[in-house]
């Protein structure tokens, strides 16, 4: 993934960006991503991705109209994101980009709503494996016995992960 264009954004654009992200996440999340007096850079890649770097560290990826925290940042930070916990047998599939299926779930955050961006972690170490988009409300997920419940959007083997490792 190569950079097509990059530039720092103005304080008015930062305010607009924070308001957009706040539509999707709570204030604690936004404050964690964008600390006060931070320098925010928008990066456009040749692949068409739009990423946000805060103080020189990739933190957000804009995928269509949704904002996804970059895994490399999630792994270093303690975020209070809605979380789905998968069993140890699902790890290999999830990290390879597979969507999350109902039989492999161990714990579902009861505040999850359909369309929410959620953190996917393992049951043993609570390590973030991926970020996905919920296809159902938490109650609906609990009621299901089988089927896809979360669309996998970002893993440790995708192009954004690789780009984040090399980003400077």
Task: Describe this protein's structure.
This protein has 168 residues and is α+β, with helices and mostly antiparallel strands. Helices cover 26% and strands 35% of the residues. The chain has 6 helices and 11 strands. It has helices spanning 11-22, 27-33, 71-76, 91-95, 138-143, 159-166; strands at 3-8, 40-45, 50-54, 57-63, 66-69, 83-86, 100-101, 105-108, 117-122, 128-134, 148-155. A 6-stranded mixed beta sheet has the order 7-11-10-9-6-8. Strands 1-2-3-4-5 form a 5-stranded antiparallel beta sheet. A hairpin with a 4-residue loop joins strand 2 and strand 3. The chain is globular.
CATH H-level name of the largest domain... which superfamily?
Pre-PUA domain, domain 1
Mean pLDDT across the residues is 93
Give the uncertain stretches in residue-range form: none
Tell me the domain tally: 2
Main beta sheet, described?
6 strands, mixed
Number of strands: 11
Percent in strands: 35-45%
What is the helix/strand order? EHHEEEEHEHEEEEHEH
Structural class: alpha+beta
Please work out how many helical segments DSSP would assign: 6
Radius of gyration using CA atoms only: 16 Å
- Cross-sheet strand order for the largest sheet: 7-11-10-9-6-8
CATH topological fold name of the largest domain: Nuclear Transport Factor 2, Chain: A
Molecular shape: globular
Cα separation of the termini: 13 Å
Helical content class: 25-40%
CATH architecture descriptor text of the largest domain: Roll
């Amino acid at each position: 993934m190569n950079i097509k264009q990059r530039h720092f954004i103005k304080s008015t654009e930062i305010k607009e960006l924070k308001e957009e992200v706040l539509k999707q996440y709570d204030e604690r999340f936004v404050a964690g991503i964008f600390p006060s007096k931070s320098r925010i850079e928008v990066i456009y890649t040749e692949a068409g991705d739009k990423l946000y770097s805060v103080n020189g560290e990739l933190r957000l990826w804009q995928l269509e109209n949704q904002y996804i925290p970059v895994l490399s940042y999630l792994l270093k930070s303690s975020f209070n994101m809605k979380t789905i916990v998968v069993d140890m047998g699902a790890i290999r599939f999830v990290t390879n980009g597979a969507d999350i299926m109902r039989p492999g779930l161990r714990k579902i955050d009861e505040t999850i709503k359909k369309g929410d961006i959620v953190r996917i972690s393992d049951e043993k170490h609570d390590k973030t494996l991926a970020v996905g988009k919920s296809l159902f409300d938490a109650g609906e997920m609990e009621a299901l016995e089988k089927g896809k419940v979360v669309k996998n959007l970002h893993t440790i083997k995708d192009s954004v992960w690789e780009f984040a490792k090399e980003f400077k």
